[in-house]
């Protein structure tokens, strides 16, 4: 078992421990809250754990750069595992809310949380509209996960020296603001894109991917882990540059998968982003290359929930024919190359440098 696999196992144990502790708290309030415990344990089981892994390698790289540090010190490792677990709980909350905003039916091949609550209401034949109950319950469920992520993060960071604690808290708090702002811009763009020039749409799409995903998925977890370890300004600057580049590649790959991904692998229907009306960079680049006469039809299709499989296929073909997919692949490759080059200037330990180099390639070429 390599270090990353071992880390995933340890993170799962830490998350399970935290959720079990809170299961008893919920049980004391009311038996009906057992659903929150069941859903949280299932929803937080498994996953790629990218954010926690990046936090770990940011921490590991900084510690390994100091020859006087004992890398396997249990107390220090316990702190970064707590930070990683908190990041994963935060991410789960973001996914719950994201699925509500996007009206998504599935997540990782299973019913989305709001659909699970909807089914719970329908099966019990409760009064009222089942879908309304599902959305409301899921919002509260996501809020509960957010509060738990804060609790675990701040309790964990309290064990650090004051300077490291303050730096890490600032990273986490900024991340919370960034991802919420990015989510709003994403929702806004689905309705407010009209009337902007093609270049403005491209700029706006880049801004959304930066704040909704790139910073939150890679840059901030790395900086957070490095701050926990007391990283220098040079190390943090290099990790941020790497993180933003690789995070951009990660989100652009996600945008491609949202249009072309295999549902059996991604757990979501192929073309789902097109039906949801996601105004991604891929959509903006495609639109820019279309003749004026074809744009009205294209605009009407993006965001149409009733698009047939044949219409999805036609849009996929169009994205290839306009060169938008090829352009996005070029941006991904350039972003990865930029991120990997920055690692040479980061002043990290050799193991962390090698791990981050491999992660840059993995994040940009994944199929799910």
From TrEMBL:
Keywords: Magnesium, Metal-binding, Transferase
Gene Ontology molecular function: metal ion binding; prenyltransferase activity
Transferase recorded as keyword: yes
Biological process (GO), any one: isoprenoid biosynthetic process
Cofactor(s), by name: Mg(2+)
Domain of life: Bacteria
Name of one Pfam family that matches: polyprenyl_synt
Record's keyword annotation contains Ribosomal protein: no
Annotated family: Belongs to the FPP/GGPP synthase family.
Record PANTHER family: GERANYLGERANYL PYROPHOSPHATE SYNTHASE, SHORT CHAIN ISOPRENYL DIPHOSPHATE SYNTHASE
Protein name as annotated: Polyprenyl synthetase family protein
Species, as recorded: Mycetocola lacteus
Lineage of origin: Bacteria, Bacillati, Actinomycetota, Actinomycetes, Micrococcales
